[in-house]
């Protein structure tokens, strides 16, 4: 029975001019945005590769100099992009893509104390993802808000009743027919995206997995809208009421929920301002974390410990360079303080993101966006993973320069030198984006919200069958 | 129990909120009989038909189809009924043939191409219209698709609500003959109509309803046309 209704629904939806006209215009819109952003992504990837290689080469070809002076020359590293970022640029426009690695301090790709603004602003942006998350659900609503009320008004519902059609079979047949027609019309867009990505990038298995997951997420998302739309059409007596109600839901889901979610996160877990953040780090380094003593006290204690360790009376008699040793000691402490504050800030961002899902009862759009950003590798979790790898690399090459500085000097002299062979021996920053499993792990909450919406929408659809009584 | 009665109501009462639309109705249509239900606007004809189809729930009394209670076996019973309202509701974006196949498939009957064509032609739809979208059909053409659905279902009974209103005289006449033929093939037909001429022409029995009650019932062959008209008007004016 469901299959019969589905076939008929598919045929009528495809013949209905609405789908072709709206579908075609959205396709053109999507294709335009997508081609532009994938072209941009491609250019950006090449640019990052080029600048990254140049920066390392400049590092490599430094003249003979003090290793620490060389460290101050610094290295630029870039966050690599996944091909799927062409579909959902996510936070990319708001988070920095490059990181300047230098001694003594840890830089932020970009410190945005109100990343929650980002969460809100990324909606309403004209991009291919806006077509996917905001406009296509609207197309579904436009196609199906009267799918039952029209049958009621035209009398075909009575014909169906007189033939003993089970209301549930009718509604679920309609759902499947609508979704099939929708995907048939959308398949050129999917094909275009797949071909463009395959042509521009070398797609790995992981990329294919990501793209299929994105498609599956979108399928679930559109199913929510389609089921609610058909359910509402069965529930309300007139098409007008159905349309009002569905438009309200769409606006709530696409526009209100993200802003409300951001506001909730902001109120319940406020972020420090940028100056507060950096000041706290400076203070903790100067005054020390509880129990550690001030910088002065720590350095005095360290000097005594080093002298005892080498069995000498003064730093001038040390067989290794004390300047480097002391600097390294301070850097380790500084790293510890930075780590503490960065972790706290990130934990707060994470809390805000989780809290934002409190607005998820307004609609599934926020959850879908979180999920798709994670899958496209353009969310905070991926940003963090990149930053951690960069920090590890920073410590690696700074430590290396300190080793040279310390071992090629002694006492308080600053005579250590390094040459090009040393600089070249610093390995390149080789970072690979984590696999899709990482994205999924980071998206458990949005997955749960989306799943809950899917379940609720199907339940409501089954429930609205009761209102189909003739 | 008289099993020859395909359509039957016993002391049927149907109410809309407070309003009693059908009041103690006793009606019986045997196989092979065309029963014309006459009555002024609001007499309860459509409500009677809707109740047979399960669109309305009786407040009391019984609705029997082929001797079986509608309330007890709604699905089984629906497979034995065909319904033709004044405007046969079809899907405008599908062709006549596709509509027929769809509605029959819902009734559990898979029709092949040839069979579909034959059913439509037998119902009087010209062959070149079979694959045209129903949106372009006239009222009479839609009715023919409705008839084709009824005959494909091998329904035991047909429920018609003002089937000839809006049809031109020759189409109405053609339709009447098809109804007659269906009844002669053993179908029980209940037809609500305002068309006295049509009623006299095809019906075997005629019932006149007023305020939800069957106020008079007689053999169609036993009255002349003018006699029927005066009976009808007498009830309408409250003289009878
Ligand atoms: N859905 C409804 N809700 C409330 N009252 C209704 C409804 N449908 C019909 N009625 C009332 O029930 C009574 C019988 O109506 P019904 O439609 O059965 O009459 P009818 O004989 O078919 O009239 P007509 O010749 O105008 O088609 C009328 O008084 C009408 O107002
Ligand atoms: Mg009526």
From TrEMBL, chain A:
Source organism per UniProt: Methylomonas aurea
A Pfam family matched in the record: DUF3526
Database matches in PANTHER family: ABC TRANSPORTER PERMEASE, ABC TRANSPORTER PERMEASE PROTEIN NOSY-RELATED
Superkingdom in the source lineage: Bacteria
Keyword terms of this UniProt record: Membrane, Transmembrane, Transmembrane helix
Protein name in the entry: DUF3526 domain-containing protein
Transmembrane segments: 20-39, 130-148, 169-193, 213-236, 243-264, 444-462
Coiled coil regions, renumbered to chain: none
Automatic annotation (TrEMBL), chain B:
SMART domains on file: AAA
Residue stretches making up the ABC transporter domain: 7-236
The protein's name: ABC transporter ATP-binding protein
GO MF, any single term: ATP binding
Transport listed as a keyword: yes
Species of the source: Methylomonas aurea
Keyword ATP-binding tagged: yes
Domain of life: Bacteria
Keyword terms: ATP-binding, Nucleotide-binding, Transport
InterPro entries, sorted: AAA+_ATPase, ABC_transporter-like_ATP-bd, ABC_transporter-like_CS, ABC_Transporter_VariousFunc, P-loop_NTPase
